[in-house]
């Protein structure tokens, strides 16, 4: 049974930093591209960042480029998102997601995702 469990969210001030973690189980973590996605109230799900199986390649949405860093530790089956210089518009529910079988860097898709962890950035 595939399971993804996020942690690390909370309340942070504008300009602050936060590190999210996602522990994966039930599948071979090192064989799958992984993503972070987020959803703010009343808005669609937004792709934030993606990382390939060995961590050598990563991509970011323009809205977070230069501020967020995605990484993974395959030995610990864990995905990370380091968020710096946070802004109020980063407030959202952040979830990790496993790439679906037809996912590409240009058109990411997901077949599993976790329940998410809430990040709230105060102004």
List keywords for this structure.
mainly beta, 0% helix, 123 residues, four-stranded antiparallel β-sheet
Write up what this structure looks like.
This protein is 0% helix and 50% strand. With 123 residues, it is an all-beta fold. The strands form two sheets. Strands 2, 4, 5, 6, 9, 10 and 11 form a seven-stranded mixed β-sheet that branches. A four-stranded antiparallel β-sheet has the order 1-3-8-7, with no helix packed on it. The radius of gyration is 13 Å and the shape is globular.
What's the short version?
With 123 residues, the protein is mainly beta. The chain has strands at 3-7, 10-13, 18-25, 34-39, 46-51, 58-60, 68-73, 78-83, 92-99, 110-113, 117-122. The chain contains no helices and 11 strands.
Mean pLDDT across all amino acids: 96
Structural class: mainly beta
The proportion of strand residues reads over 45%
Provide the succession of SSEs: EEEEEEEEEEE
Residue runs with pLDDT of under 50 for 5 or more positions = none
Note the total helix count: 0
Choose one word for the global shape.
globular
Give me the Rg, rounded: 13 Å
* Strand element count: 11
Largest sheet: 7 strands, mixed
